[in-house]
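Need residues for this backbone.
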């Protein structure tokens, strides 16, 4: 992949796609291809195939997906499995049929078994039952991984699969119910500060541990691996350390500058107790995450403040 390559970034308005696009633009890529949802519905097989036939992208970053936090995953379980299966199946098959040279697919750390040994290695895939709160989403992502492995073996199609840990950053979804924990807490602490609320409610018990990767670091890893990795094996992309949700809430509280209390609501699901990625393979390939969590949260909070007025929900 070089600066004149025709690169299609699918999902360029989402958290991950926008970060990859920013990264490629900063590197001076001249032939970036994007389509808004109104222009191209990625769940529509015929539309996707027509698009690939016309545009013939040489490289594809498949960053389009239906995603959400723990509650959205169970509320919209059918949408999560259907939309993701359709988007990735259409994208991968049309890329193969129309001569794409290489495709990057993004999974998630929730593809690993609920009780996988920690930190989770790439070989733990399909060694045990999944976390029920996001099983439909995880099954779709596992199907994408297996599809690319099969296309590589049967057709020689070059697809690589990255498994990012929980992501956050500019462009995130800050919806109060549907979002992931980090943007949800930024918004909740901010609104509590603005309206002088005495306490902020954090879902669950506060004991689950999560690993958080700043999305610009993921974009950096994606471009790095597009250039240097070409194998059917999945690659974990994480930072190698995690924090309990209680500690994350304290960090967000401090960045936002809220002075009230934190209370936990154990009637909300905790989800999987821990999902820390083993990043030995990634480090061996020569890449490491750079952005410390406190700095990433501060940058995300700044972005939130700048975009607050235009946010939905
Ligand atoms: O970010 P989150 O929804 O994703 O939740 P998962 C992480 C933890 O934060 C859970 C707690 O233990 C939540 O109970 N939490 C506390 C909150 N307060 C909140 C809040 O206000 N909002 C949210 N959302 N959580 C998702 C999967 O799981 O992770 C997806 O469902 C995907 O499939 C994604 O893999 C990365 O880490 O539990």
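Answer:
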């Amino acid at each position: 992949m070089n600066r004149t390559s025709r690169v299609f970034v699918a999902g360029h308005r989402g958290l991950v796609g926008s970060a990859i696009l920013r990264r490629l633009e900063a590197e001076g890529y001249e032939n970036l291809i994007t389509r808004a949802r109104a222009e191209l519905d990625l769940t529509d097989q015929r539309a996707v195939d027509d698009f690939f036939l016309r545009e013939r992208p040489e490289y594809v970053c498949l960053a389009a997906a239906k995603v959400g936090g723990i509650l959205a995953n169970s509320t919209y379980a059918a949408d999560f499995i259907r939309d993701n299966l359709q988007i990735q199946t259409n994208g991968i098959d049309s890329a193969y049929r129309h001569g794409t040279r290489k495709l990057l697919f993004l999974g998630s750390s929730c593809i690993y078994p609920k009780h996988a040994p920690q930190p989770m290695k790439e070989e733990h895939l399909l060694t045990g039952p999944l976390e029920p709160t996001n099983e439909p989403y995880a099954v779709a992502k596992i199907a994408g991984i297996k599809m690319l492995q099969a296309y590589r073996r049967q057709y020689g199609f070059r697809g690589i699969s990255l498994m990012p840990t929980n992501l956050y950053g500019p462009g995130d979804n800050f919806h109060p119910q549907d979002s992931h924990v980090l943007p949800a807490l930024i918004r909740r602490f901010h609104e509590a500060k603005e309206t002088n609320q005495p306490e902020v409610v954090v879902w669950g018990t506060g004991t689950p541990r999560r690993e958080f990767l700043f999305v610009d670091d993921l974009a950096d890893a994606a471009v790095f691996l597009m250039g240097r990795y070409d194998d059917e094996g999945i690659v974990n992309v994480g930072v190698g350390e995690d924090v309990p949700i209680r500690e994350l809430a304290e960090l967000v509280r401090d960045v936002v500058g809220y002075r009230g209390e934190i209370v936990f609501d154990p009637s909300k699901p905790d989800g999987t107790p821990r999902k820390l990625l083993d990043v030995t393979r990634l480090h061996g390939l020569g890449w490491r995450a750079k952005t410390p969590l406190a700095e990433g949260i501060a940058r995300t909070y700044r972005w939130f403040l700048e975009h607050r007025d235009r946010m939905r929900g």
